[in-house]
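Appendix B. Chain record.
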Amino acid sequence: MHRFSILILAVALWVALPRSVGAGKGVSYKFQHYKEGDDRVDVIAHYASAQVDLSTAAKLSIVGLVDVITGATPTGATPDEGSEQVPLARLEDTRYAGMVDFEHAIGDGAIRAEYAYSHESDYISNGLSIGLSHDFNKRNTTVRLQFAYTDDDIQPGFFDTPRNKLSRDLLVGITQLLGPNTVITANLSYGNIDGYLSDPYKIVSKTVEIVPGFPLKLSFPENRPDHREKWVGYLEGQHMFEAVRGSIDVSGRYYTDDHGVDSGTLEVAWFQRFGERWIVRPSLRWYRQSAADYYHFDL
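Structure tokens predicted for this chain:
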């Protein structure tokens, strides 16, 4: 029963809300199973959500999540001599998460506040965000401003005390309607993170020459810098083709940070509607990322 406690809470809150708060009210459940070959990663997830209209201008959403992950992940150590198999560590954990989202319309704009909580055996996260949006040009243009703050504690079993990580993100975005069937969105965001940014389960292998002519392979805990600044640019365009009841979605994302990591993503997706209930979504995604300045690999 404990595994489904957050899901039950979401449904219970929906049921407990009085009928007089608004006409709109709904609850949903979703199950997801993700599996990789050779038993690398297996994730089973349960989602429950509830939504209610508090008034004609305000609405509240509650989401509960429980997922179980099992599998294996590389430790970061190099393969043994004569082998191409990198060392793996078994993993198994359960995550309980919940989110409360409140949105209130004000004139031609809206304010939105969100609180999110996530708990794993070795990781606890608390996040808060607030966003403002405003419509211009007869609601054909929407401008958004959003700030998010996250406080995370990392404490695997071999840590005496938790290691803290603080994240702050600021996003500015605009959505423009170009016609009845075409819309584009552009976002620019900045973020900085302070605290423990390493992966506590990753190690780095290094061959050290203890004395001349006698090398020895040693392993050290991962030790990334304790500060990072990042910039993200995002551009998306959507167009609906009424004749075939389908639409195309093209998006691009560029990421860069002061650790030397640069990445680019391009995705093209097609949404094809069949009847009133079914939508088929084939997609193609291209992604490329550079290594951080402090990452080096020598054979």
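Further analysis of this model is presented in Appendix C.
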